[in-house]
Amino acid sequence: MSRKRVLPPALLILCTTALSGTAPAVASPRPAPVTAPPLRILLTNDDGYDAPGSRKAFARLTAAGHDVTIVAPLTNQSGTGTKTTSAPSIRVKHPEPKVWAVDGTPGDSVAFGLSEVFGGRAPDLVVSGTNYGPNVAGLATHSGTVGGAVAALESGVPAIALSTGGLTAPDPVTTVNAMDPTVDFAVRLIDRLRVRARSGPLLPEGVGLNVNHPVVGADGRGAASGVAVTFQDPQPVLAADFTDSGDGSWKVEVRPDLRPGARGGDVEAVGAGRIAVSPMSADWNTGPVERAVASALIAGLRP
């Protein structure tokens, strides 16, 4: 048996008013909207502490009310992946308030930020980016942007890797322009996370988000056609060709080797002009199917 839904009196008055255009005789007080407190955010970026993506993200997140501190590499560290230093010392500059420049990788920067800048009191969120160029498929595996987010996840801090770029290389100015809609989306995403979390964690423990925003429009400022939850496409995207120079050195030429994107993957989404949001973890554990295959492979083997 179906139940007839009865509108509460206050809502019935509002609906009737909206249809008739007349004012209600008695107005019920509206409850105050539920608001979430601003976040303490550590912002890093493999392009460097002073890169356009760092500064745009800092300005926009700060304007949204968050307490943002940049702790990022002193120089461009693109492609460093999850690398961390093994040197006995590391140089750090503090060129201005809320900005720390670490002479190391994004992972080094996050480690220093969590330990020293935030004084052992972990931030609510680490944002890594926005990066110049996409970090989809095999690019994500070797990305310093993703590496910075992974360093945060390893320490139990929620993290978002944020990248701007399509599957073809636009001119740098267009990509810098496209960073504006990228960070605008990041602000909305973070706001959604904190409202849903209320007093709890922003994301499940050990889970981060790898966000790739496409470049849309001739000037890069166009709106994406949608948002998709995706996975990391298994293809490598880039291939290296080696040529023997005959003197012990080899010439290396890296070229695009892009294949059609896997259905539901990040390559497919970005190629269609959608924002790809891929959940990720800090480890390389596989699922039960892969573990079952491995169990079958070693069955009966002895040390």
Descriptors for this entry?
alpha/beta; 303 residues; disordered N terminus; globular
Give an overview in words:
- The chain is α/β, with parallel strands linked by helices and 303 residues long.
- Helices cover 31% and strands 23% of the residues.
- The protein has 8 helices and 11 strands.
- The strands form 2 sheets. Strands 3-4-2-1-5-6-7-11-8 form a 9-stranded mixed sheet.
- Strand 9 and strand 10 form a beta hairpin.
- The longest helix has 26 residues.
- The radius of gyration is 23 Å and the shape is globular.
- The N terminus is likely disordered.
Poorly predicted regions are 1-28
Mean pLDDT: 87
How many helices does DSSP assign? 8
Topology as H/E string?
Answer: HEHEEEHEHHEHEEEEHEH
Oligomer: single chain
- Helix coverage percent: 25-40%
How do the strands of the widest beta sheet line up side by side?
3-4-2-1-5-6-7-11-8
N-to-C span = 65 Å
Which structural class should the secondary elements be placed in? alpha/beta
Biggest beta-sheet profile? 9 strands, mixed
Shape category: globular
Beta-strand content bin: 15-25%
DSSP, total strands: 11
Q: If you compute it from the alpha carbons, what radius of gyration comes out, rounded to the nearest whole angstrom?
A: 23 Å
Q: What would a concise description of this structure say?
A:
The chain is an alpha/beta fold and 303 residues long.
Helix and strand arrangement:
Layout: H1 9-20, E1 40-44, H2 52-63, E2 67-73, E3 92-96, E4 99-102, H3 106-117, E5 125-132, H4 137-141, H5 144-154, E6 159-164, H6 172-197, E7 207-213, E8 226-229, E9 237-244, E10 250-257, H7 266-271, E11 274-281, H8 288-298
Parallel strand pairs: 1-2, 1-5, 2-4, 5-6, 6-7, 8-11
Antiparallel strand pairs: 3-4, 7-11, 9-10
